[in-house]
Every structure is written in C-alpha cells, then in structure tokens.
Amino acid sequence: MSHHGRLAEPVCTSRRRALWQNLGVSTIDSPEGLGQDGLTPDRGTIAWVPVAAATLFGLLLASLAGTHIVAVGIIVPLVIGIAWTQPRTLLLFLVVWMIELGLVRRLVTNGGSVGLSGDPLLIVGPLIILCLLLVMSSRRGAFRGRSTMASVVLGLNILALVEVVNPGQGTIMVGLGGLLFMLIPVCAFWVGRGLIDETLMRQIVWTVAIFGALTAAYGLFQTFGGFPSWDQTWLKSKSYKALVVQGQAVRAFGTMSSSQDYAAFMSITLMAWVALLFDRPRRIPRLIHFALIAMVGTALFFSSVRTAAALTIFGLAVIVCAARRLSLVMAVVAAPLLVVVAFIGLQQIGGSSPGGDGTGSQKTATQVLANHQLSGLTDPTGSNSSLNGHLSATMKGMGKAFSNPVGDGVGSVTLAAGRYNNGKAFNNNTEFDPGNMSVAFGILGLGGYIAILLLGLSHTYRMAISRRDAASIFALGVLMAMLLEWFNGDLYASSWLVWLCMGFVDGWETRLKEEAEDLALAAAPARPPRRRWTSA
Predict the structure, then answer these.
(1) Which residues of 25-63 are buried (b: 16+ CB within 10 A; e: fewer)?
(2) Among 314, 343, 448, 466, which has the minimal tally of Cβ within 10 Å of its Cβ?
(3) Cα–Cα distance between 123 and 177 in angstroms, integer?
(4) What is the number of other CB atoms lying within 10 angstroms of the CB of residue 127?
(5) CB contact burial 341-352 (16+ within 10 A = b; e otherwise)
(6) Which helix (H) or strand (E) holds 249?
(7) Which residues pair with 118 in a beta bridge?
(8) Which of 261, 229, 140, 232 lies closest to 190, judged by CA?
(9) Could you give phi then psi for residue 284, rounded to 5 degrees?
(10) How many CB atoms lie within 10 A of CB 143?
(11) Cα 253 from Cα 255, distance rounded (Å)
(12) What is the DSSP string of 286-300?
C-alpha cells in the first residue's frame, strides 16, 4: 500500500461512517463489519411491545368512550417519542397502521371530528411521516447531496406549499386540507431516501406481503361470505355509490375505507409476493408462495376495479422485462407486447364465459363482479368501460395547465374541496395524475409531474435490472401498480408507498455515488510533497 493509500483509507472510512450516521442509523465499528448497505436495525426491537400495547389500549378506551380522540391522545405522544429513538420501528408500524386503519375506524365507532382531517385517527399517519421527516432533516441524511430526482420532488413540495393560498380553490381551509393529500404522502420520499437500507426495505416488503395477504383473505370473505355487521354499518352511514356494481353487487373493500384503495393495495401486495420470488434465502415453500399469489390475484380480480387490474398486468410485464435484464429501450417495446398477449388471453376467457356482458338480471353478486371486470378488460373502449370517460377528464384537466397556468390550488382536486368549500370544487378531480396536477398546480405542476414520472420510472427500472432482488423488484412493482395515481392521496394506504420506494431508490444511488467518490479518492495517485526552499 502506498503512502497515499494509507492516508486516504481513513478518510474514506470516516466519510462513509459520517454518511451512515447522517442517515439516522447506527454503524458497525469495523469497515469489515459493514453489510451491503452498511446499516443496522434499531437497537431494542422490544420497542414493538409498547407501541402495539399502547395502540391497542388506546383503541379499547376509545371504543368504551365512543370517540377516536381518546385513542389519538394516547398514540400521538408515543409516536413523537419513538420517532427519535426507533425511527425504523416506527416506519414499520406506519405500514401496518395504514393497512388496518379503515378496519380500525369501523370497529371503533363514533369517531368524532377534529381539525382538517375530520376523523382524528386520520392524522396519525401524516403525523408519523412528519415526525420521521423531522428526524431525517435534523440528521441531514434525507437532503444530503440532492440528485436531479430529489430536486424535482423538493420543487413539487415547495409548489404545493405555495398553492395553499391560491384563491381559485375557495377558502384557505381547502388548501390546508389539500396538503394532507398532495404533500404529506410525497414527504415519504425524504423518509425513504434518508432512512431505508436494504435490510429495512426487505422488512417492509414482507410486512406488506403478509398483512396484504390477510387483507386479501378478509376481502374474499366480504365477497363470498358477506359483510360483517361493522362493515354493514359503515356502508349504511357512508353510502358509497362507487361500491355498487350494476345495482346488484357491492365491491369488497377489505380493511380499507374504499374499494379503490383496496384494489390498489391488492395490486401492491401481488407485486410484493412476486418480488419475494427473488428473495434469498427462500423463506417459505414455493407451493405456499404461489398459493398466496393466487389468493391475492383472486382478491384483486373480484374487487372489480379495472384500473388496478390493468395496471397490475402492465406492471407484471415490466417486471418480466427487468428480470430478463432487458434495457430500458427494449422494455418500452417488449412490455406493451406482453400486455397485448395478456389481453388476447383475457378476451378468450371473456368470450367463452356465459353472460360476459354482465347485463343479466339473474346473476349472483360474484358473477356480476367477475363479468364487470372481464367486460372492461377485454373491451376497454366498449360501452361497458369507463376508460373513455377517464381519458376525457384527464385530457380536459391537462388543457387547464395552459388555460390557467397558475392552477386552482393544492386542495382543488382533493376531498378537501368538497368538505370545506360546500362541494363547489369537488368535480375538479380528473381521476389521473396528469389532469389533477395540471388543475391544481398549472403548467409548473404538469411539467414537474412529467419530470418525476420519467425520472422515477427510469431510475427504478435501472436499479431493478442491476440488483434483481426483492427490494428493487418491489419498488418497481409499486411504481407500476400506482401508475398515474402517485399523487392520489385519497388512496392513503397505497400512494405514500410510491414515494417511500422512490426515496429508497434515490438514497441507494446517492450511497453508490458516495462510495465511488471514496474509491476514486483512494485510487488517486499520491502528490509529491511540496519542496520548500530555504535560504542558506
């Protein structure tokens, strides 16, 4: 080893250790002990015990008291405290909380109302994201060495804050309420960038897969066995028209608050189980693994939400391309061809099934749901499909980016518009991100969305073909499952996972860049010592 090498090695090691410390996790003392990402889990995994116990105790008291405020009063202080000492444990708790929140709200009735969110339990998730963001910001891991993708996300965050005061959305309460849907979920990007390493990401994938499978089983019970009493009470009190298909069948919604969120999360769960096929070492027998994939796929099919089903097919085609390590250009060509083949197969199934049009009057509820799903997938532009309406609304919304370049405000396309503006701006929602970003943020929103769409997909795909492991395949699957709905905060169990995964991808690339710079510094030729001239 050269003299320069002996000097450079401690510099590289200390620089890398400083990066891990800024990421908010503990480090291993010796360079040889560093793992693939050089990160270790939180110390004291027993932290799960007080979190789970306090949550269950709070929900029990809330049920007895008849208000969710009691539960929030117990959970919130615990969340704030654990964010500083066990951020990784808190992030895993957040995944579980968002999955089960809808069921919790139904089991603990008479929620009450507070602040911008209505039901006080709805503020727990955003509060956890904000607490984790504060921890990452204070330790400077999240904002360190911003990439192009991170800069675009930061620009969209700032734009959302500015659009709060846009008078086009009505009152400022609409703008503030809109932040819960259009800003808070996006902040998960910084949490993923600053906190998640490969170990934690694999834990997240397994958490999503296991709890998603349980949600799928519950949704199938709703479909084939009927809705329990607490779900029936929820249906009567909320009167969700979108849950009813052809006036004969009610869509399942699992542990979520809506069938759309349930279907989107079933798509993400399916991606998780497919990604775990790439996990090493294998944790469960292949037969059980494929059985769980089949169960989740069945739940997705009978959700009768055709957008989620179509995106799942497209996402699986992209994953096949990544698994084969096709280049990005080749994937752009090959993935649509695989989708066409899949839809031809579906047309054969739909054409051979009786009553494929779903218009019969003597069908069971499950037949109605199945026929509704198949009719939309096999004939996406037909009379039974809503695709034309979705595309028309999206194109109309994109046109507003040019007719109203400053936008209508961050809350104009969210549920906050209907809640705080007497429903006047509720119909501004255009279903998909390109239209919603154009309406809410104007020309800057449309441009920013196109930029983050291209950057997010390209970087995540390159990571997937480079690593081809469970973490990278899952990240790619989430982005594809939620394509065109990344900013749909109404899907509170699903949309924030997009930004968490994208942050993980950007953080991984940042660490690779840091390591490359360290290696370049260590390999640089030693400079000869400067000769000093002294007078005789």
Answers:
(1) bebeeeeeebeebbbbbbeeeebeeebeebbeebbeebb
(2) 466
(3) 11
(4) 18
(5) ebbeebeeebee
(6) strand 249-250
(7) 114
(8) 140
(9) -135, 155
(10) 15
(11) 6
(12) HHHHHHHHHHHHHHH
* Cα–Cα distance for residue pair 484/488, rounded to 1 Å: 9
Cα-only R_g, the chain: 25
Question: What is the maximum span of the chain, computed from C-alpha positions, in angstroms?
Answer: 112
Residue 375 contacts residue 349 (beta carbons within 8 Å):
no
Residue with tokens 């002990």: 33
C-alpha 312/C-alpha 333 separation (Å) is 18
DSSP string over 185-245: GGGHHHHHHHH--HHHHHHHHHHHHHHHHHHHHHHHHHHHH---HHHHHHHHHH--GGGEE
What is the distance between the alpha carbons of residues 12 and 528, in angstroms, rounded to a whole number?
Answer: 21
pTM, entire model: 0.85
Cα distance between residue 212 and residue 312, in whole Å: 15
Collapsing DSSP to helix, strand or coil, 2 comes out as coil
Task: Record the tokens describing residue 112, joined without a space.
Answer: 């009450």
- In this structure, what are the phi and psi dihedrals at residue 23, rounded to the nearest 5 degrees? -75, -5
Residue 159 CA to residue 445 CA, distance in Å, equals: 8
- Residue 289 · residue 277 · CB < 8 Å: yes
Nearest one of 211, 208, 220, 295 to 482, comparing CA atoms: 208
Do 338 and 320 contact (CB within 8 A), yes or no?
yes
Q: Residue type for 235, please? A: L
Q: What is residue 302's three-state secondary structure? A: helix
Structure tokens at 204: 């997240």
List per-residue pLDDT tens for the chain, 536 residues long: 444 443 344 444 444 444 444 444 443 333 333 333 444 345 444 456 666 666 676 666 656 555 677 777 777 887 888 888 889 988 998 999 999 888 888 887 655 544 445 578 888 899 999 999 998 887 656 787 889 999 999 999 999 999 999 998 888 888 898 999 999 999 999 999 989 999 999 999 999 999 999 999 999 999 999 999 888 888 887 666 667 887 778 899 999 988 999 999 999 999 999 999 998 888 889 999 999 999 999 999 999 898 899 899 999 999 999 999 998 888 888 888 888 888 777 766 655 554 444 444 567 888 888 888 888 787 776 666 677 788 888 999 999 999 999 999 998 888 888 777 665 545 588 889 999 999 999 999 999 999 999 999 999 999 999 999 999 999 999 999 999 999 998 898 999 999 999 999 999 998 888 888 778 777 777 666 666 555 54
* CA–CA gap between residue 487 and residue 436 (Å, rounded): 8
Q: Which of 34, 127, 103, 30 is nearest to 511 (CA)?
A: 34
Report which of 192, 211, 287, 286 is spatially closest to residue 254, judged by C-alpha positions. Answer: 211
